[in-house]
Amino acid sequence: EFNSQALANTAWAYAVFNYPTNFEFGTNPDLVRLIVSSMDKFDKRELRQLHQWNLWGKERIGKSLLPLNVSEHCLEVFSSSELSQSRLQNDVARALCSMGVTFEEEVI
User: I want to staple 107 with a disulfide (CB 3.0 to 4.6 A). Which of 34, 75, 83, 102 is the partner?
Assistant: First the structure.
């Protein structure tokens, strides 16, 4: 049995790895139904992952994998997320500063 995190991680992994053999499972209607029926269980992080998976589907087949209302909700959560710097980004910035390199940080 999948919980919401496992379900979001699985869908997101198919998008990230983008293997052609994964496409059929990654766009499986049963997976989509399971996601839609579990929408109230996903937290913001998981909804962001679902948005990324849905973008992958749009790129691969030219249309949203999720129903419009679910797709829009995931996009809204993704777009309204607070910006943050990763630990790696902070480490790189410190290293560059210590070497006297001038740079401009970008936060996504």
Answer: 83
